[in-house]
Amino acid sequence: MALMDSPRCSATTPRLNAPARATSSHPNFRATPPMRTPRRGPRTDTRRGVYSAPVVAVRCVRDGMSDPEGSPSAMNAPFRRPRAVLLFLLAGLLTACATPRVASKPVSASGPEVWRSRGYGWLLTVTLEGLRLHHETAAWCYPDPASSSELKQMFGVQEPGPSEDIRDFFAAPGETRYRFDRIAALPADCDAHPVWSAPELFDVFRATFAEHYAYFPERGPDWLARLEAERPRVSPGMDDRALFTLFAESLRMLGDAHVELLADDARSDTLTYEERATGTLALLEQEARRTGRTPKAVQKEWLGAYRDGILQTVLRGQGHHVANQRVFWGFAAPGVGYLNVMTMGGFVAATDGDDATPEQELAALEPVLDDAMASFAGATAVIVDVSNNRGGHDVVSRAIAARFADRPRPAYSKWAHGAKHVPPQEFILTPTSRPAFHGPVQLVTSDVTVSAGEVFTLAMRALPQVLHVGTRTRGSFSDVLVKPLPNGWTLHLSNEHYTDARGEDFEARGAPPQQSLDVFPEADLSHGHARAIRALADSLTVRDAK
Question: Coiled-coil ranges per the record (predicted)?
Fold first, then answer.
């Protein structure tokens, strides 16, 4: 979410950045730190300061997100920002998929059904009146603030499992499936705790990570022990800001771009915590400090140079900049097509503060791809550039990759941490009947490529005619599990494993290219990308001539 991302309208939750304000927390929001969609709903003028903990062996950082036109996202106001209160992004993300919806199983009039998820820590109550969700940990159980209509966007479809007491809930065919077991009743204490002390919140925070965080071995093998060592600092009288600071300092040690903590309190300044930028985006922050400018201004200038370099140097003034200025395409050299996708969504301009559904995003994107692929029909090679892709919807990633698939091929698999006896969900790349290109492809990535951009990388690497060039991707594949804490704060964490068609997991290290290409050289951040792509296109022309 990168840009956008939670229950994705295709097999997983969309990847969007978390909205600035939410009236409730989406159960599983695939947010990509760097990519954001327009905010939804009414805004408030609550001031927000971005929390920055002291540097503690930071491995991965969070970058300020800017849109392709160079306007840094609102999350960067003072980054991925002063923020308004967290907007609920669930509505609209899952409501529309091109596939017909499966009819939900009728609810018995005999009484409520209560279901416990495998993984995710959810207790879902199903009644004739609607749905209700609780979050369960070894420490405490507490209700989610989401309404029944919001929950139906996530769990509105049901299918029977291997036995009568097992059921799969999901948003739409092709989306992430969540397996639940029926239990006799909701635990008695799930609604019996109206006031929360700092030690109790600490217990919920720790238990949530202990039970659901998927990458301790890669990112913080001793993280739980180090957090536990902070317990003596937590007292019943501890104020909110001190507790938030303690949580934020602990999260800093993970260095995970999909970990985020937001506190929303109308009585005081609103706090947020996100990872600092790394790699290329960290170099931009260094440039801002060196020149005395704001990171926002430096990134805007950099993105402007990136755009102009594509249009003038790569496409020589003959290209197309379309789909809400998220897609570039044209010919980079004689016989060499060029397609650059900056986000896996955002192709539809927001209206009245509402984000487009995945169906609307695809409806806007598919004609653009039709034009590009029809134009590439006589090309000898195509460069597909996602070197500055900030994430979005996985369904969009698969739709673009399908334009290069000649037959069905396994693209990637995913499963939730702690989901016992649930087989990985496999996603197949299926050829499209629309215009396509099945010739040689050069896929370009960088350390900016993240989230749904990385899922696209997995899908493209499954195709035999694709050569992956550039630098490693950022290494943040997992959907974001959104957990509202019982005091109104919101926690995001990585709880899912993504593996490529060979079963390899690139979380925390990024997908490595088969051929190195310095896309954003430190010595020439503004123009290095265009020159690198220009050289790559010319080399393909020479190779074809030989």
Answer: none
> What is the rounded distance in angstroms from the CA atom of residue 71 to the CA atom of residue 304?
9
Question: Do residues 472 and 512 touch, judged by C-beta distance below 8 A?
Answer: yes
* Six-digit token string for 403: 């334009």
Task: Indicate the pairing of strand 441-445 with strand 425-429.
Answer: unpaired
Cα(5)–Cα(90) distance, integer angstroms: 9
Give the burial string for 355-388 (b: 16+ CB within 10 Å, else e). Answer: bbbbbbbbebbbebbeebbebbeebbbbbbbbbb
pLDDT digit string (tens) for 395-440?
Answer: 999 999 999 999 999 999 999 999 999 999 999 999 999 999 999 9
Task: Quote the pLDDT of residue 475.
Answer: 92
Contact 160, 177 (CB under 8 A): no
Give me the residues of the chain with pLDDT under 70, please.
1-110, 265-270, 352-353, 542-546
Domain segments of the chain as ranges: 113-183, 198-274, 294-475+510-544
- 324's tokens: 């809400």
pLDDT for 281: 94
As a whole number of Å, the CA-based R_g of the chain is 23
pLDDT score, position 425: 93
For the question of whether the overall pTM of this predicted structure is more than 0.85, the answer is no
What CATH number matches the domain at 294-475+510-544, 2.60.40.10, 3.40.50.300, 3.90.226.10, 2.30.42.10? Answer: 3.90.226.10
